[in-house]
Amino acid sequence: MTYKSDTSTWNTKKLKYVTCINSEVLRENKDKEQEISYIDISSVNSDGRIKKIEKVKFGVAPSRARRIVKKGDVIISTVRTYLRAIASIKENIDDLIVSTGFAVLRAGNEISPDFLKYAILNPDFIDKIMANSKGVSYPAISSSDLANLAISYPYKKETQDLISRYLNYKTSLIDSLVQKNEKLIKLLEEKKAAIISQTITKGLNTDVEMKDSVVEWVGKIPKVWKVEPVSLNFKENKIKNSNLQEKNLLSLSYGKIIKKNILSNFGLLPESFSNYQIVEKDCIILRLTDLQNDKRSLRVGYVPERGIITSAYIGLTPKSNLNSKYIYYLLHSYDLKKVFYNLGSGVRQSLTYFDFKKLPLIIPTSEEQEKIVEHVEVGIRKISDSINYIDKQIKLLEEYRKTLISNVVTGKTDVRDEKIPESGIKYNYA
Questions:
Q1: 4 pLDDT more than 60
Q2: What is the mean pLDDT of residues 275-288?
């Protein structure tokens, strides 16, 4: 039995009775040159952290950016609810607004803002939001449906504040560990990228005579290496999947070629795959569309087996004795340096094979290509093992954080007698 079972100390009400929802909207006649602060859904992590607040002029702010938020408000993503973007606003910022994809909750007299934050971050409450969301690709919950969801809270503000202080303290300790691990992963990713770039373009022998490659993003290369265009070593893959002869569906995801179930109804899979291209092992796949709007994706993949993949991607088939894996890592290093983003054209900044085929490739000797690939893959494997281990620790901490919030904010765990340091508390200000 928990202390929450004492109904004289806890209450349960729908949100509309204990909060104000979307109560303030920015006026339309504001000076277009005036600067405003804006939070987009993509700027909020699922753990309640706000990654960035953008500064934009009102005249160029997104038309959907109209809801005013103030200190103590809780913002919840009501569109694309699978993102679980929920955060608490911890300071007053003039003209701080959010996308209308958020609902803005302001605590009423019965509930404290900090307790409201944790009641909303409770995984069980988030599950209720998801269950009441409609739509497949971009599930959304209406403000009225959200308002009818209920939360439980202690009658006494003192108990609410004690619970909030305890969770502020404990989640701050967890978040500190998570952020340290995330920084470590970032450093390891940078080390991995450096190994690839340095080895792929400079080779393994540091004493070899060098020359200028005349490729601005590469610099000097070993003197015996060549610089040749893509077209001299690869041809564009144009083998169509006529009569659905091949059904091994492949996809490019985060720089990796992965297998997908061709019979799956999940996602945006076409009914017919006859226009897909057939690719063989050692092909290289590049997604060179929408370069202007998406500068974070990894766009190069190495094909490990025969299959089919969308013809929207450029497929490269080797026509020489080049080591395809070496070229994959070379193009991957170009990708990490964001080389492709300066080459696109058109409204969506896409790059066709006609332009891409002129791209210069750095070509070592055949023997060096194999040694370089082996060296790179050994280095990547060691770093990736470390990253995977750290990532598992982060996931365990995140699960513990969710369980902690759920148990404490619902009264399953009584923290009234817990000792909380009076000084040096690092509150989770998101």
A1: no
A2: 94
The better pLDDT of the pair 326, 37 is held by: 326
Residues for the chain: how many in total? 430
Residue 336: half-sphere exposure toward Cβ, Cα within 13 Å: 19
DSSP codes of every residue in 151-182: EEEES-HHHHHHHHHHHHHHHHHHHHHHHHHH
Separation of alpha carbons 382 and 274, rounded Å: 40
Q: pTM value? A: 0.78
Percent helix, percent strand, percent coil in the chain, to nearest 5: 35, 20, 40
Tokens of 86: 């929920």
In angstroms, rounded to a whole number, what is the distance separating the alpha carbons of residues 288 and 353?
A: 9
Residue-wise DSSP of 189-255: HHHHHHHHHHHHHH-S-TTS-EEE-S-TTT-EEETT-EEEEHHHHEEE---B-GGG----EEEEETT
> Taking residues 32-52, what's their average pLDDT?
83
Of 1-15, 37-51, 54-68, highest mean pLDDT:
37-51
Contact yes or no for 306/246 (Cβ under 8 A): yes
Which residues in 168-177 are b (16+ Cβ under 10 Å) and which e?
Answer: bbbbeebbee
What residue ranges define each of the domains in the chain, with the CATH number in brackets?
3-155 (3.90.220.20), 226-363 (3.90.220.20)
Specify whether the CB–CB gap between 69 and 98 falls below 8 A: yes
Alpha-carbon span 361 to 359, nearest angstrom: 7
Q: How far apart are CA 281 and CA 127, in angstroms?
A: 42
**H helix or E strand, kind and range, residue 400:** helix 366-409
Q: Do 113 and 107 contact (CB within 8 A), yes or no?
A: yes
Given a cut of 60, is residue 428 above it in pLDDT?
no
How far apart CA 406 and CA 413 sit, in angstroms, is 9
Cα 334 to Cα 92: distance, rounded to the nearest angstrom:
43
